[in-house]
C-alpha cells in the first residue's frame, strides 16, 4: 500500500476515474516514475498533475506510457528459454491445442521469442499466444512487429545462447533501420489490454509467462496475481517468472512445484 498520503490520494483518483489501480505497486518505484513524469512534463505539483490527467484522456494515456515499465529484449535471459525447451516443450507437445498467456508483454520481444521457439519445436501451428499489457502504446508496437536493426546483434547472440536451431535472420526482414518479424510468427498471436491489478482470468492456459513484472508490485499484489495465474492454469500447467521473482509470499506457493529453481519455472500441481 502506498503510504505517502499525497501520492496515495492521487492514485486513488486515477483508479476511480479510469479503473487503473497502481495503489499496490511497489511504492518507491511508482513514486519515482511519477516524479520523473512530472519533471519531464514540467508539472509543478501532484494537484496540477491530477488536473492534467484526470480531465484529459490523451494526457492520461501519455502518463500511462511513461510510468509503466517497458524494458525488454528478444530471448532475454537466454537460459530461461533453453530451460523451456528442455523441461516444458515435451509436456506441452502432448496437448492437441496449446494456449499461452504472456502477461506484461510490453513491446512484444518476449512474444516473438516464444513464437520462434515454438516454431522450431513444431508447436506453433497448434498454439494461440495471448499477449497482454496495461500499456496500449506498447501493445500497438508489439502488434506492428517492428524493432530496431541496431538490436539484432545482441538478439542473435541471445537466440543462439537460448538453443536456437536455425539462422536468426530467417525470422525477420530488414528494411532501412528496422526489421519486421515474419508474418507467420504473428498469425497465432492475440494482443489485448489486460490490467493484472484489476482484471480477472479470461481463459485456461497450459503455459503462462510473466517475467520481470511482479518486481514492481508489493507483496500483497504479487500474491493476488499469482492466485490469478493459478486460476488461469490447467492442471499441471506451467508458470515462468523473472529471475528476481519468486512464489515466496504467494498464498498459492504450495500449489506449485519447482521445475527449474534457477530459471524460475513452476508447475501447478494442486
From TrEMBL:
SUPFAM superfamilies reported in the protein's UniProt record: Chemotaxis receptor methyltransferase CheR, N-terminal domain, S-adenosyl-L-methionine-dependent methyltransferases
Organism of provenance: Niastella vici
Transmembrane segments: none
InterPro entries recorded: Bact_Chemotaxis_MeTrfase, CheR_C, CheR_MeTrfase, CheR_N, SAM-dependent_MTases_sf
Protein name, UniProt field: Chemotaxis protein CheR
Superkingdom classification of source: Bacteria
Gene3D superfamilies named in the record: Vaccinia Virus protein VP39
Domain CheR-type methyltransferase: 1-257
Molecular-function GO terms, alphabetical: S-adenosylmethionine-dependent methyltransferase activity
